[in-house]
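Database export, one record per block. Field names are fixed; values are copied verbatim from the stored entry.
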Amino acid sequence: MAGKIVHFELQTKDASRAKRFYGSLFGWKFKDSEIPGVEYYSIEGIEPGGGLNPRQDAPGPVVYFDTDDIEATIRKVRELGGKADEKQPIPAMGWFAGCTDTEGNNFSLYQNDPSVPMEMPEQEAGASSR
């Protein structure tokens, strides 16, 4: 359903420390994404899905909103005065795009697509992620 919250990420400067904190606080268990070259930990067994994203700039939580057509939604974000990155692959899961609304809030879009391959063409693989 378009606009439904489907995922959230807690940005962390120290993933080990964050896993200890949230594991003790909520009993969360974490699984490594196992995506080559990406440090990312999924939180197991919660709805909506969540994860820990180790980043040095750690801007705060990011909410992912579902969309049926990520490219059309990216265009609409831009038409409405927001900012949107180009879509990025999540191998075997789908696509995401980092966005900023007109008030400066960061959020992301997500389109489910299990057919996204592990290896991306060179021009897409070199694109920056949020």
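Remark 1: The longest strand covers residues 5-12.
Remark 2: Confidence is low (pLDDT under 50) at residues 123-130.
End of record.
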